[in-house]
């Protein structure tokens, strides 16, 4: 997990015990099982999970921002105001989310602007706009136009895909395992890129060319270091046989 500019970390038995103590045995248990009890391998797998989580989070962030701005740009244009959320008939959970986002802006304190409010709304908020309850008020008149023609009658499918990626986002945010028995991580990456591509192929190509996911998926694990040789005594270093030591 280290970069060339970072100091090389030295692993030994005492270090492994310390890492396990502070990461927690429970959190490391799936990696230890996967490594067949080898704690050195388990900890390196745990580090690899951090690397992949870090890389994937950036791609999910790109999806969230792309989706958010696609919805905002469309609704602002069609409804004729940047603060479209003020007069649109949102359900109570979404209305409450907007009010909380507005409060956080005012608490900073800065000027209340649409961009700042929208930035405070979660991925879950945007995903809920594709729910059944918004089919006639949002999907049919507006949101389906964000997506290619082949998907304009598949709101439920899009909603399901966004739910899956929200779950992935939450797993990353809570430092949960993405590898070692959970083999979908590469497919998750492809799914994120695909949805971005539905919205805008140029943004998809940009995100694909600026992330390090593929590199981290294929990066080999470091080889396990050999045990350090036992320290020699001065007599050993001088080549004096132990049987010839003076009494």
Characterise this structure:
The protein has helices at 13-23, 25-34, 39-79, 84-87, 92-107, 114-119, 123-128, 135-139, 155-173, 185-199, 201-210, 213-218, 234-238. It is mainly alpha-helical and 247 residues long. The protein has one domain. It starts with 12 loop residues before the first helix and ends in a 9-residue tail after the last helix. Mean pLDDT is 88; it is low at 231-247.
Biggest sheet descriptor: none
Enumerate how many helices there are, as a single number.
13
Give the proportion of residues in helices.
55-70%
> What is the general shape?
elongated
End-to-end separation: 52 Å
In round numbers, the mean pLDDT is: 88
What is the percentage of strand-forming residues?
under 5%
Uncertain residue segments: 231-247
SSE order, as H and E? Answer: HHHHHHHHHHHHH
Quaternary state reads single chain
Specify Rg, calculated over alpha carbons.
Answer: 26 Å
Number of domains: 1
Count of DSSP strands? 0
Structural class: mainly alpha
Task: Please provide a brief summary of the model.
This protein is mainly α and 247 residues long.
